[in-house]
Design a protein that fits this description.
The complex is a heterodimer. Chain A is α/β, with parallel strands linked by helices. Chain A contains 15 helices and twelve strands. Helix content of chain A is about 45%, strand content about 15%. The radius of gyration of chain A is 22 Å and the shape is globular. The chains are: A alpha/beta, B alpha/beta. Chains A and B meet through helix 12 of A and helix 3, strand 1, strand 15 and helix 9 of B.
Chain lengths: ~400, ~350
């Protein structure tokens, strides 16, 4: 069964840029028809507060200016546009993570089939409708479908009609799609090329010479937007300096998270998440009782908010990367040098996503060079880790160029 | 205290669970400094403990960091740690195994096997897994309930296929029932081996299977119905003769489903000296009746450590027991974001 998409004359990249930028700009201006209701619906089905959804989506759309889109598109102008159809299977952890890959598909010249899920079925159809309202021919290149991955009989037909499948999600999700549709197992008899953007982890790095108060405020924002659910969310902070600096940073960060909580309240967590945080908190207590030099600061209980700590910052004597339990729980650890950090405290190779450096840090150029050499693909500024440029190298991929090259 | 608990285990009307639990709390408060410090560090007032539900529970996580004991331990059980590769292993220290044995045998006789039978064990044994509580359990069962012809069919090198085949053939020939005991994973491997050889057996009525644990560590989930279908296909033992055990290193007692007594096979039941609370992990208070929450067990047989243990297992109340839903350990996979188990399980830098 083939699933037809409308096939009017294909708009060129410039038409895509104009339409996408126009829609993004109207989001920034708050003049999408029904924008407030849409935000409310997205927040209602997600695990984030409405304020976080608003701030997070503002960052997504803020990256899609015409200037930025032209710059991105211009980098692969030497490659001819592709035709055909590209499926985008976004992760469901954060609303809107499918936007940039969808734009890449359109800029590459392809139609985009975007999967949504029951976890967040609202944004992508609304975006597609806004695009269509601005430019019907660009809108006609976008199709949005909701299905349960791996469980819906329509999936095979939908993906069979696509030339490429871009998957954003956990490594196991990507492996699953590869097995079924990648062609290397012959799973469905399809020889499709899957581009997988899998699990990634990020951290922040601050030197002792930085303005700790300002850096803390900026880092708190990166932690609070999307509640550490994304691959660009810092799991912890490595302080290049003595333990006393990491202690000071812990205090500053605690104060910043506390203040920011009013502007960006933490979302509702699931039973599983709450249970995980409960066990995590018990472990901290046990570690302290076992004699480890561990200290932490956490949110004070509030009668109107049920649940574990709404944020928690801990510091100890270790220097290693550790996945955070999420929901604004992060470590602050000291490394004697950037070399020690690279040696001991980066996420595992292949899972490195971003490192946030602070603009006030006199050593940030040196840190950036060392982190880039260690194959951290995205070096970002603290305070804007959740607002990367549209062409940010997700796991090191330039998706637009890759899509075009794969067809060439 | 031990004699009183033992008496209560044997004779339920000899005492009151709540009073006994409170006395046990005071006993452990006096003798277990680590427990006492943990409770005080959490800001709890021991004077506010007036019912068994108030007794402060210790997370299983803590057993990975601290030694919780009321005396001079002589026995150490360690968790396998298989679900989180680099994690520490939890430790449960016992002064002696008297209550552990008592609890095990009383429950096992009630829920699985009342009298000796040929046992076929597919689980670790103390000879090659000396710190495994499951291994200790199997050894006790073999000693107390294993009749002639019983076999340990799993060793450090895997399944003893010649021994198992001989044992199964003997059982078919002599017509005496047998009980297969083992981890779900070992039993699954056995089924796969026998399937590949197109072998199956038809044991006498009264034969039964007790399996424990899930399919973690083999890279894929084996649905329960598939496991039960395998038992039926290869051993001709129907689901109504299969009991699933749920236990943990940190507890001296075990839970079983009620399959053999015709009860709901999804419900885990405990002996009368164990009570389970389902708590809302966000509040620490009892969850609503149908709400999934964290399981907190109070096991009077945990005399030597702490009686109240907060697990990482999720479940909800049903009837006289609970339905196990799953386990939560640390950071959860979050879409494209970090998956703790995955990252910790790799280590390449």
């Amino acid at each position: 069964m083939d699933v037809p998409l409308p096939r009017p004359g294909r708009p060129d990249a410039e038409a895509v840029i104009v339409a996408v930028a126009d829609v993004a700009e109207s989001w920034a201006q708050g003049d999408w028809p029904g924008q407030a209701g849409l935000l409310s619906r997205i927040a209602g089905v997600s695990s984030f507060s409405a304020q976080v959804v608003k701030a997070g989506l503002a960052a997504h759309f803020g990256a899609m200016s015409a200037v930025e889109l032209r710059r991105w598109s211009g980098r692969s102008l030497d490659l001819p546009p592709i035709r055909g159809r590209i499926a985008i299977l976004p992760a469901t952890n954060i609303p809107g993570v499918g936007l940039v890959p969808a734009v890449a598909a359109l800029l590459a010249g392809a139609e985009a089939l975007i999967k949504t899920s029951a976890a967040e079925p609202h944004l992508m159809p609304a975006w597609r409708n806004r695009i269509a309202a601005v430019d019907a021919s660009v809108g006609a290149m976008i199709r949005v479908e909701e299905w349960v991955g791996g469980a819906d009989p329509r999936e095979h037909a939908l993906l069979a009609a696509c030339d490429r499948i871009v998957v954003l999600g956990s490594d196991s999700t990507i492996e699953d799609v590869l097995t079924r549709y990648g062609g290397h197992s012959g799973g469905a008899g399809l020889a499709r090329r899957v581009i997988g953007l899998g699990t990634g982890a990020s951290l922040a790095v601050v030197g002792a010479g930085a303005d700790l108060t300002a850096a803390s405020r900026r880092l708190a924002r990166d932690v609070s937007i999307w509640d550490q659910q994304g691959c660009l969310s810092p799991q912890g902070l490595a302080v290049i300096g003595p333990r006393s600096t990491s202690m000071a940073m812990m205090e500053q960060l605690a104060a910043a998270l506390d203040t920011l909580e009013n502007e960006l309240p933490v979302g509702q967590m699931s039973t599983v998440e709450a249970a995980g945080l409960r066990g995590f908190r018990a472990d901290l207590t046990a570690r302290r009782q076992a004699g480890e030099a561990i200290q932490w600061r956490e949110s004070t209980p509030r009668s109107d908010v049920r649940g574990p700590a709404r944020w928690l910052v801990w510091t100890d004597d270790e220097i290693r990367f550790e996945p955070s339990p999420g929901r604004r729980h992060l470590w602050v650890r000291s490394a004697a040098s950037i070399d020690e950090l690279v040696r001991c405290a980066l996420p595992p190779a292949g899972h490195r996503q971003a490192a946030g450096l602070d603009e006030s840090d006199p050593e940030r150029s040196k840190f950036a060079a060392a982190l880039s050499a260690a194959r951290v693909p995205c070096i970002a500024a603290l305070g804007s880790m959740q607002a990367p440029p549209v062409d940010w190298p997700n796991k090191g991929h330039d998706l637009l160029a890759e899509l075009k090259r794969s067809a060439a | 205290m031990k004699a009183r608990i033992r008496r209560f285990m044997i004779k339920p009307d000899s005492d009151d669970f709540g009073l006994l639990a409170l006395d046990l709390f005071r006993y452990q408060w006096d003798r277990n400094k680590v427990y006492r410090d943990l409770v005080l560090a959490s800001g709890m007032d021991p004077g506010a403990v007036v019912t068994w539900q108030d007794i402060p529970a210790v997370s299983t996580t803590v057993f990975k960091r601290l030694v919780l004991t009321c005396g001079h331990p002589t026995i150490l059980f360690r968790t396998s740690g298989t679900s989180r590769g680099h994690d520490r292993r939890g430790e449960h220290h016992l002064v002696d195994a008297d209550l552990y044995r008592e609890s095990l045998l009383l429950s096992f006789r009630r829920f699985v096997l009342p009298a000796p039978m040929r046992l076929v064990i597919l689980a670790p044994t103390p000879s090659w897994a000396p710190d495994s509580s499951l291994g200790f359990m199997m050894q006790v069962l073999m000693d107390e309930l294993g009749s002639p012809g019983s076999l340990v069919g799993l060793g450090p090198d895997g399944l003893d296929m010649p021994g198992l085949l001989r044992c199964f053939e003997d059982a078919e020939r002599d017509g005496l029932p047998l009980t297969l005991l083992g981890t779900a994973l070992a039993l699954h491997n056995l089924i796969e081996r026998l399937d590949s050889e197109e072998r199956s057996f038809c044991f006498s009525p009264g034969s039964r299977i007790m399996d424990t644990g899930g399919s973690k560590g083999i890279g894929r989930e084996i649905p329960r119905h598939a496991q039960l279908a395998g038992y039926s296909r290869v051993f001709h033992i129907p689901a109504s003769r299969v009991v699933n055990e749920y236990g943990m290193t940190e507890l001296a007692s075990q839970f079983y489903d009620a399959s053999l007594s015709g009860g709901d096979p999804d419900v885990k039941l405990a002996p009368h000296w164990v009570r389970t609370r389902v708590i809302n992990p966000a509040t620490g208070r009892d969850a609503d009746p149908d709400e999934t929450g964290l399981l907190v067990h109070l096991d009077l047989a945990n005399l030597d450590s702490v009686a109240a243990v907060e697990t990482e297992d999720l479940g909800f109340r049903r009837g006289a027991g609970f339905v196990l839903v799953g386990r939560t350990t640390g950071a959860q996979p979050r879409g494209c974001s970090i998956a703790s188990d995955m990252l910790l399980g790799r280590g390449e830098v």
